[in-house]
């Protein structure tokens, strides 16, 4: 990448520095503005009156990070546009969240999403699920920090270690001092920057080619327009079925069970506002993801016949989009800075949301359980120290990820698959009142173990070629300036940059392995859905062996019927709680959320109430 260095000019540094400075200023502003309202209710929820429009934009960019800006185009380049089905699958996840989960969370007025698992099952289920998802979220955020740092190091003389440090420090700073309000307002700024940076690459390339039709033709020649790949073989990496199933299951976890998103639902002032926020996020999400898919087609058209990795232009496929932007805008000062800022904005939005959520989880699910008598001042101090701690840990993970040889999108799929068994536990909790605490514990443990086992084993034992096969790439049209020339070839197992599956020699050695040719060759998009199904299956097995819950004794406030009819209610009456609209609810919620009311000085008393309430449930 030596040829890439030095293209970042003064105006690019000004634009990039301005983005970082603006984000820091927003954090400082809200830290000063709310200096007299230092409570966890304000720090984590913005007093529960944040605009649903702001929440929608924040939701849309919280998980459309640098992974979307940089890695989705690479995914399209290597495996085709079938990934675009994610856009339509999201509609299902939004329906599930708005129909079933948001009303439940609103009426319980939770502070962390895993409080529900304690109320429904047992405190141990809460701790296990919270810890599992915290680990997965930390690794996800480490990946999102690494990617834009890689982009910046590709277009400047800054080393990767310094770009990772800059990203982590700035993001942790404004999140720590400003809380949720700083997060959602910087998300608005960063969404606009992301849109500008992604759109600039797409428009510039389209004009360069004389219209999108030429780009479309190139993608068609390279078989990248595989939208309707309905092959039912689950071992083929990218098919329509694999993408839709993964998007629905993984999307339901993100929209229904992730602290990052649920915390934003609870920042709105009502069920209606939360639902508006959920559905509104589809608009910016669709625009950003569609442009990322378009940039993937642009990437293929630009490097058709001269793959940037095989030709030696870049070292890793994740550097392809930064390299493309570098070549498109080398005569346009400021535009490279705009694109890199877009990648950084995606990371800042994701990491700030994640750090805030991690701090809330650690505080409410662990710290205050062991130190319930902490004063309000100490609680806020602890919250900010936790934010600093998680910011530092994420920076360390980013350094670790930078040593990985595999495609980062592949690594992210594996990390995400660890979280979906938690969705299985929530599904059993909401819709299956016969599942007991042992079933929930068995579900989350076996589901996570299964997903992890498949992901790790597949990395060195998969023997079915299509499990790791990319679409054809070549260097036939490379100029003599390229590092070297090779003939047209498929990248099946040939370059560890594309996938971390075994190479051809290993395939030949292990072809007699049944598991290697079947289960270990499963599409990585199906790791998560399989973990989800395994968690539900073993949840039922464990509940059967230990004795199903008596449905007649189920708490109606913790149950949601899949269809609101007598058949699917199983004889359970409707809940009497309606989002805090009457005095009786407030009295009931005082027990349900004991230890989590707005006055942190009453936590010791509330903790005693919580113990009494647990006796009535368990």
| Count of extended strands | 0
* Low-pLDDT ranges: 1-6, 481-512, 580-618
User: In whole angstroms, how far apart are the ends?
Assistant: 61 Å
User: For the report, how would you describe the main beta sheet?
Assistant: none
Structural class: mainly alpha
Describe the structure.
- It is globular, with a radius of gyration of 25 Å.
- It has helices spanning 10-33, 40-45, 52-62, 66-79, 86-108, 115-120, 123-155, 160-208, 212-221, 240-257, 259-265, 271-280, 282-302, 320-328, 335-370, 376-401, 408-417, 420-431, 437-461, 504-510, 514-517, 527-546, 566-569, 583-592, 603-617.
- Mean pLDDT is 82; it is low at 1-6, 481-512 and 580-618.
- Helix 3 (52-62) runs antiparallel to helix 11 (259-265).
- With 618 residues, it is mainly α.
- It has 25 helices and no strands.
- The longest helix has 49 residues, at 160-208.
Keywords:
disordered N terminus; mainly alpha; single chain
Layout of helices and strands, plus pairs?
Layout: H1 10-33, H2 40-45, H3 52-62, H4 66-79, H5 86-108, H6 115-120, H7 123-155, H8 160-208, H9 212-221, H10 240-257, H11 259-265, H12 271-280, H13 282-302, H14 320-328, H15 335-370, H16 376-401, H17 408-417, H18 420-431, H19 437-461, H20 504-510, H21 514-517, H22 527-546, H23 566-569, H24 583-592, H25 603-617
Helix pairs in contact: 1-8, 1-15, 3-8, 3-11, 3-12, 3-13, 4-7, 4-13, 4-15, 5-10, 5-12, 5-13, 7-8, 7-14, 7-15, 7-16, 7-17, 7-19, 8-13, 8-15, 8-16, 9-13, 10-11, 10-18, 10-22, 15-16, 17-22, 18-19, 18-22, 19-22
